[in-house]
Write a structure and sequence with these properties.
Blueprint (H helix, E strand, L loop, with lengths): L2 E7 L5 H9 L16 E7 L2 E7 L11 H11 L5 E7 L3 H14 L3 E6 L1 H7 L2 E2 L1 H8 L2 E4 L8 H11 L14 H10 L10 H10 L2 H6 L4 H16 L5 H20 E2 L8 H9 L5 H17 L1 H28 L4 H19 L2 H17 L1 H14 L8 H6 L4 H7 L6 H10 L9 H11 L4 H25 L21 H35 L14 H13 L7 H12 L3 H10 L3 H11 L2 H13 L4 H11 L2 H32 L1
Parallel strand pairs: 1-3, 1-4, 4-5, 5-7
Antiparallel strand pairs: 2-3, 6-8
Bound molecules: guanosine-5'-diphosphate (GDP) and magnesium ion.
């Protein structure tokens, strides 16, 4: 029979790193809280039997405030896990052990992985794991998940302890008697017997979730009430505080016995760096410089150099070779057209941007792994608080620069339901990676002198519109106070080569997969629709084709924005399926390869119209997959459709303003 263990620990304590180590998986690791918001399963094979390992979102205690915390707690309370692997950040041991104490009360077989032992060594912290084990009654194994230290010993200990229920240690001075009295009274309920101390603890705390889910017989309720009343009569505080104090007293004692810290705590590297990086005056200039550097590297000479090479390979070598091959095989003109102009033109135009995608994600991965991304959220919070927004929204929103879908899920980290919904609606304004080929194409063609600045301006505009929309929503449908900001700043860490490469590879794989599936199929469909008339004759001119007629029908909507050209309108629609499709659709519709497409666009779009087009692409509703996620996370079509309409209307208005004001200014000059 398979056994299942759950990895539980505080946010950013290295759970996913450990999970990847143990199971050989490649889950996303990031140096900030809130990266894992769902559960993930993998396996360890140990002496011919398999242990399933479940990675969960991080939690500070078993009293959940947010959806992701709920996911973790519900899972440990279910019957599924046979044991718990509690991961503890050794550099932050007191706070981490608070969760540990609650887990111990659950009574499930458990092992503690004392992580970050490498950092402890560097900081001169010594921990006596034997002593800690004795006090807690749980085996403690020192590890470094990042370096893979002590993994074998950890696995062996987990396997050996899988069937050993915990004995409850003699903790909780003063309140232990109350907890055991309630636990004993609970024996007659159907609750898991070994977890009764946990339920007793939570019921005494007055935890509303447990109260709702556990049906108590009257006699048990009586015992609970008298015990709770007796407890609170001891002091002026409420029971939750009294119990928390008791847990912390116990923890302090345990730490005093087991941990030796250097006499004079040195200022850590993180503290020294933060004096500089999140300094009141320097924070924003540093942020701006980093952004310029990142976009310049992605879209400036380096990115273009590699993109050009790839494009030359595709249009200069691959397409002619395929063309020649098809011709010698006697393929008809339309098959050649479909393969070369449809498939290779569409897919090729998107794939050419792979180098830039990889470079951008290299930088995003560095920002995330060093711990800088969390600081951006922190810096933004100071600014946003002034207009009544919670900086906590910025954590999911920053993830939106990668891809909207996981970012929308990351809004689960928000405690306040209104804030969560609002964050979900704002996240799509953060420019996702898939829009990058569109920007690169247009900026390269129409603004060759200042391509990176045009693109930076779009990213900044996305943030500004996001803030404006947030302010607007806060004043209207999401009225109310935001919760305070409690993002914990992670320490600065050097990114690992493995982690960085893995993030880049994941992104490249996603991008190529999309090109090979959605973009591939869509290019064929678009090619067919623009080559046949509604009566299924070959269209002499593509404006007579099915797509041409449809495009001309919707084009007037975009005419006031400066791009009422039917091909541009059609590509906006296909962009709803996947943003990269804007580029592939244009390439197929204009019937030219990527290098010629750039030149052609300069004759179709004025610079102002091109910028207005990019603004529309930046702001309008996200792609289908993000839309589906928004529907799921918001719990209904109405919400999702409302959000999409809100985004699209706002995109239209901003793009309209950009085009009209821009044209006016140009006129004067
Ligand atoms: P999670 O939020 O608990 O899943 O934590 P992650 O696995 O995402 O890791 C958070 C950060 O801690 C990442 O930057 C990891 O590289 C880093 N990390 C994890 N384990 C260790 C460790 O043992 N030593 C050091 N120095 N860093 C670690
Ligand atoms: Mg994680």
């Amino acid at each position: 029979m398979n056994h299942t263990i759950a990895i539980i620990g505080n946010p950013n304590s290295g759970k996913t790193t450990l999970f990847n180590r143990l199971t050989g998986s490649n889950q996303h690791v990031g140096n900030w809280p809130g990266v894992t918001v769902d559960r993930k399963t993998g396996h360890i094979v140990y002496h011919n039997h398999t242990i399933d390992v479940v990675d969960l979102p991080g939690i500070y205690s078993l009293s959940p405030f947010t959806q992701e915390e709920m996911i973790a707690r519900e899972y440990v309370l279910s019957d599924e896990p046979d044991g718990i692997l509690n991961i503890v950040d050794a550099t932050n041991i007191e706070r981490n052990l608070y969760l540990t104490m609650q887990l111990i009360a659950l009574g499930l077989p458990m092992v503690i992985a004392l992580n970050f032992i490498d950092d402890c060594r560097a900081q001169g912290i010594e921990i006596d794991c034997g002593a800690l084990s004795d006090t807690l009654g749980v085996r403690v194994i020192p590890i470094s998940a990042r370096k893979g230290e002590n993994m074998d010993e950890l696995i062996q200990t987990v396997a050996e302890n899988l069937k050993k229920p915990l004995r409850q240690p003699a903790y909780l001075h003063g309140v232990g008697a109350a907890v055991s009295r309630v636990a004993r009274a609970l024996e007659e309920t159907g609750l898991r017997q070994e977890s009764l101390p946990f339920y007793a603890l939570k019921l005494l705390e007055g935890d509303s979730h447990v109260q709702e889910h556990v049906a108590l017989p009257p006699s048990v309720r009586q015992t609970l009430e008298t015990t709770a009343a007796a407890l609170s009569s001891h002091g002026s505080e409420d029971n939750e505080m009294i119990l928390a104090d008791a847990l912390y007293d116990f923890i302090e004692e345990a730490v005093r016995r087991a941990v030796k810290r250097p006499a004079q705590p040195v200022l850590t590297r993180t503290e020294r760096l933060d004096r500089f990086i999140i300094n009141k005056w320097l924070a924003l200039p540093i942020f701006a410089c980093l952004m310029v550097l990142m976009f310049w590297a992605t879209f400036g000479p380096v990115g273009s150099f590699f993109a050009d090479i790839l494009e030359t390979l595709i249009t200069g070598m691959l397409v002619p070779a395929v063309q020649a091959g098809l011709r010698s095989a006697g393929a008809s003109a339309w098959v050649t057209g479909l393969v070369c102009d449809g498939v290779l033109g569409g897919v090729g135009s998107v794939v050419s941007f792979l180098p830039q995608i990889i470079i951008l994600f290299f930088f995003l991965s560095l920002l995330e792994d060093t711990g800088y991304l969390a600081r951006i959220a922190f810096i933004m919070d100071t600014l946003l608080r002034r207009i009544g927004l919670s900086g906590k929204s910025f954590v999911p929103m920053l993830m939106g620069f990668g891809c909207t879908t996981p970012a929308v899920m990351a809004a689960r980290t928000m405690e306040n339901e209104k804030d969560r919904r609002m964050t979900i609606m704002l996240t799509p304004f953060m420019s996702c990676g898939a829009k990058l080929p569109v920007y690169a194409l247009f900026a390269g063609a129409l603004f060759p002198q200042c391509a990176s600045f045009v693109i930076i301006s779009l990213y900044v505009l996305g943030i500004l519109v996001g803030i404006f929309a947030g302010w607007l929503l806060k004043k209207t449908i999401f009225r109310g106070v935001s919760s305070g900001f409690v993002l914990e700043l992670p320490p600065y860490r050097l990114p690992t080569v493995r982690g960085t490469l893995q993030n880049m590879w994941e992104k490249a794989k996603d991008f190529l997969t999309k090109a090979g599936t959605i973009i591939f199929v869509m290019s064929i469909v678009i090619w067919l629709l623009q080559n046949f008339t509604p009566t299924l004759q070959t269209a002499a001119d593509s404006s007579d084709s099915i797509l041409g007629m449809f495009g001309q029908f919707i084009a007037p909507v975009f005419a006031p924005l400066g791009f009422g050209e039917w091909r541009a309108s059609v590509s906006i629609l296909t962009g709803i399926i996947a943003k990269e499709a804007v580029v592939s659709t244009m390439s197929v519709l204009y019937g030219v390869d990527l290098s010629a497409l750039g030149g052609l666009l300069t004759s179709v779009f004025t610079p102002v119209a091109a910028y207005a087009f990019l603004v529309f692409i930046l702001l309008y509703m996200p792609c289908m997959s993000a839309f589906a996620t928004i529907r799921r996370e918001m719990g209904g079509w109405k919400w999702a459709a409302g959000a999409a309409a809100f985004q699209t209307v706002l995109a239209w208005v901003v793009s309209f303003l950009v085009y009209q004001c821009g044209s006016f200014l140009f006129h004067i000059i």
